[in-house]
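Review form for a predicted model. The reviewer records the input and the model, then writes brief findings.
Reviewer: anonymous (R2)
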Amino acid sequence: MSVLKLDHVSFAYENGSACVLKNLSYEFEKGRMYSIVGRSGAGKTTLLSLLSGLAVPTEGTIYLEDKDIKQIDKYEYRSRYVGVIFQSFNLLPKLTAVENVMLSIDIAGKKSGNKEAHAMELLKEMGLSEDESRRRVLKLSGGQQQRVAIARALSYEPEIILADEPTGNLDRETQWEIMDIFKRLAHEEQKCVILVTHSPEVAKASDEIFELGTGVF
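Model under review:
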């Protein structure tokens, strides 16, 4: 059964421009990793914005299981069901890694007996040591910051992980370390992991590729 479903979804900006996305129908399942690919301007990031609830389709419906996401409170949707990871990490630079994750737990209203312990455990699972977890994020490498961003997205246990060019700023070795984390989240923890990427290598490492403009291959 699909966890996210696009049902004849189209999107155009309000200025009357042509559709960025037109009549998309597709189903995303738990336990699988997907890559959304396409030429520049094909609407990859726009589609991710729609799936994350940051934008609303001009036409069509996006379902979370069997419920139209427009019927779900936007704050609840983004703080309970969907974890979003950005290419630029979007971490708070004045905070440490563990403080960034703890803040996410607070914002989501997640009940966690010991927030710091929970945050530290998530960071440990992402491969950060206790010393690294207590550093301000600007003192961490790009790969380490991406691991913090993933831990933050996991802090409220969402079913769906959305990532926009999550390996775009990373070197080749770190890229594959991050991809191994995403694979584990999909295959072992049964998350639905959806990546936007311009990298053919990253796309081919996914279970399924959704190419905007041509469909699945």
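Findings: The longest helix spans residues 172-187.
Further findings: Helices lie at 44-51, 74-81, 97-108, 115-125, 130-133, 142-154, 172-187, 200-204.
Recommendation: see findings above.
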